[in-house]
């Protein structure tokens, strides 16, 4: 597929991307850059990847017409059920793909970072599947608020290393993972979102593209048209959104909406709404939009949702934002909680807190009765039950 | 000529460079530390620009950066501090920071300020060669600024030769696959790497850093390179001693 939304040879989407890495990581990143497309496009990889997606992950994930939600908001709302994947989120699509790439590169030790724990669980799962050594870095604060996922990772045999620096969340877990990688360049860094140095953003987007690939034929089956009017997805780093948008980016008539976490409010000082609060900067090896102060110090983000608590977005999203191809909206903690309770009550689906942000923009939109909307239901809310219960009581 | 390169013209061996974090332990210590290091005979000084997310730095420098930021340091204050000693300090200064700091401050403004402070050498560990070639070489050349490249045990010979061609001051030879921080000793594997690089007979001066912490490791490094850089061990010293005792630290290295 030739697309203006694919990176150039240096890994740039417009002005965003690149590989801003210390020299120590150069050979490892170069090795991946030189091989990833060839591997992904090979018949052998595709066969193994698709087989595992089908039989291990449970794909295709259903495209569910949410009748009562549609009636409430006056539109035709479909939910892409990534929450029904094995391990409970879209993250497994990427980890299945990357673990196969790692194997083909001869890597035996895997490291990963995680925020909400979904990527950590997905990584620990594929490492268990393949019998590979797994170390997951996780912010100390996230270890507390995502305890069930920490337990899962440990049960799957992963070593969970707390990141104790900075805000003790996803940003710092990523810093620690990169520092470990610098000291152990023989390891494979199985990055969890469309962030990091080139080729990671492109590689992860390609592996998550299975979401929009399925959406096309599923929509065709259900509506007669493979294109919806609107796709909505939440964005922290942005991997589920990249996957949901991927095969539609060049279909300019499809409206793409990315929803960021506004935390306590965009201008409250406690927010993770990067597109609104950020400027061009470099984080975790790529040039993107980044929350930072006037001296380039990275500003600590905040969101009730550990997976969206990130001060940047992936470079592809920065490009989609800057070019106007995607509309960036945001939802506060409370709006996300309300949206999660609502979906639970009227559709019987408890969404992840991350996903709830995508649902939370429905009341803010002017919708038409025949407007076909797909919301990427990126993960399930089991891991967030404690937060849901706590706020429900209040 | 580049100010650091000039040092190597007079002295090709036993070069000692010390890294410290600006604004640490106290906000106003930057200039005092430079003065004390100069008095104690350090050959050139690396001024670390505290950064919130320093990927290549170990716990010691991370902590000093965090504390310096808590002390209220920022780039404008660092530049003011450096300006205040511009006419008295004779020891070349090298700025070490991260690319995002320069990007956000404004690339031209950053370069202009450096030059105003009398500095002509920078180390940006996350500036890759391809970005240097495509963008920053021209910018730095316009301001007469030299970029110091890092090489590591993983850097290929072809790439080292290219770095050698670009180098106008010195090549920063990272002692091992690591982030910064004291290691205590130099392994056989490291010696093999030092030897391999020495055998390449590069035109550039070589200075070894990362994991150099005392007289033993400094002396060993000097057998294979023009000199060595000490960072974390000095930061640890500053944490436990007053800045007035800096000469004791430098003497302990030189012996």
TrEMBL record, chain A:
The beta subunit is responsible for the synthesis of L-tryptophan from indole and L-serine. The keyword Lyase applies. The keyword Phosphoprotein does not apply. GO terms for cellular component: cytoplasm. Pathway: Amino-acid biosynthesis; L-tryptophan biosynthesis; L-tryptophan from chorismate: step 5/5. Tetramer of two alpha and two beta chains. InterPro entries: Trp_synth_b_CS, Trp_synth_beta, Trp_synth_beta/beta-like, TrpB-like_PALP, TrpB-like_PALP_sf. PANTHER family: TRYPTOPHAN SYNTHASE (PTHR48077:SF3), TRYPTOPHAN SYNTHASE-RELATED (PTHR48077). One of its GO terms (molecular function) is tryptophan synthase activity. Pfam families: PALP (PF00291). Keywords: Amino-acid biosynthesis, Aromatic amino acid biosynthesis, Lyase, Pyridoxal phosphate, Tryptophan biosynthesis. It catalyses: (1S,2R)-1-C-(indol-3-yl)glycerol 3-phosphate + L-serine = D-glyceraldehyde 3-phosphate + L-tryptophan + H2O. Residues 58-379 form the Tryptophan synthase beta chain-like PALP domain. Belongs to the TrpB family. Its cofactor is pyridoxal 5'-phosphate. The modification N6-(pyridoxal phosphate)lysine is found at residue 91. HAMAP family: Trp_synth_beta. This is Tryptophan synthase beta chain. It is an enzyme of class 4 (lyase). It comes from the Bacteria. Its EC number is 4.2.1.20. PROSITE patterns: TRP_SYNTHASE_BETA.
UniProtKB/TrEMBL annotation, chain B:
The active site is at residues 46, 57. The keyword Chaperone does not apply. Coiled coil: none annotated. GO terms for molecular function: tryptophan synthase activity. Gene3D superfamilies: Aldolase class I. One of its GO terms (cellular component) is cytosol. Pathway: Amino-acid biosynthesis; L-tryptophan biosynthesis; L-tryptophan from chorismate: step 5/5. Keywords: Amino-acid biosynthesis, Aromatic amino acid biosynthesis, Lyase, Tryptophan biosynthesis. It catalyses: (1S,2R)-1-C-(indol-3-yl)glycerol 3-phosphate + L-serine = D-glyceraldehyde 3-phosphate + L-tryptophan + H2O. Its EC number is 4.2.1.20. SUPFAM superfamilies: Ribulose-phoshate binding barrel (SSF51366). Tetramer of two alpha and two beta chains. The alpha subunit is responsible for the aldol cleavage of indoleglycerol phosphate to indole and glyceraldehyde 3-phosphate. Belongs to the TrpA family. This is Tryptophan synthase alpha chain. It comes from Polaribacter gangjinensis.
